[in-house]
Amino acid sequence: MNILVTGGAGYIGSHAVAALCERGHQAVVVDNLVKGHRAAVGDAKLYVGSIGDEQFMDRVFAENKIDGVMHFAAFSLVGESMSQPYEYYNNNVCESMHLFHSMVKNGVNHIVFSSTAATFGEPLEIPISEKTPQNPINTYGETKLAMEKMLKWFGAAYGLNSICLRYFNVAGAHPSGKIGEDHRPETHLIPIVLQAAAGRRESISIFGDDYPTADGSCVRDYIHVTDLADAHILALEYMMRKNCSDAFNLGSGGGYSNLQILETAKRVTGRPIPSKIEARRPGDPPVLIASSDKAERLLGWKRKYGIEEIISTAWKWHESHPNGYGD
Ligand code: UDP
Q: Which of 236, 22, 220 is nearest to 123 (CA)?
């Protein structure tokens, strides 16, 4: 297949590009390189530009016979989204609307959309299933839900098939150590813990130890970025086979507390990791765990990596790329 990957120079997108290439597919990347890294794309064809620029996208579609799209390009930081709703709606919702329109104009009818468990807000049930009501509590989640809904209406009117994949805490790196996570600034727990293990941070702050959980710190459901990339390919194949639209949650059905992540990272790296407890971070629900029963049943998706491998592959990337992509 010839797959257009938007945001293919970003963390998750670049792992999807690698997974496609490893399976003998062609990946064509569109990325504006605002957050992404040229080196993350590998040998795939890269177009630098905006997914919201329909003339540019018409050219991309004209020059490549695209069978389907994986859409990762988005801003994705919850905290930032709360102070920059204009940028988030503009970059995520408006730009995506043009992308979807370009697809329809160019007769490309299949899209796997990178959604998020943040569309569920403070979930009414754990684990979160596809039937759990979606009530986002931050701008980021709202923009992703708006895109899910837009896809539904584009599907009804124009026959655009979509599969929305909702996931939460993605971590780890490609087992080769060649690509990995390079966010600037970094805000996520596992890379920050590993920066502290490598001595590039003095210590790690654990936000809150008074949550109603076993050890008082928040619990999150971690999924390896390579497992996630595989799910995108399975979703695309499923959608093409069935000519349908659907949504799937992707998680492990279990979770790890922030303190458990810290302890696992100490064990995996063999390094001391100084830490201190700080106040809760606003907007953090105590427990987020997703069920992926439906994805396992219908897509045949099976996770290959557990928390040890998530941390050890991320550590391999951190050790071999202390300055990330260095760009
Ligand atoms: N966290 C933390 N210290 C940090 C960064 C994150 O204690 O320096 C906590 C955060 O409060 C949350 C969990 O780690 O409970 C996961 O946060 P992350 O930002 O990695 O992902 P999110 O759950 O926000 O998607």
A: 220
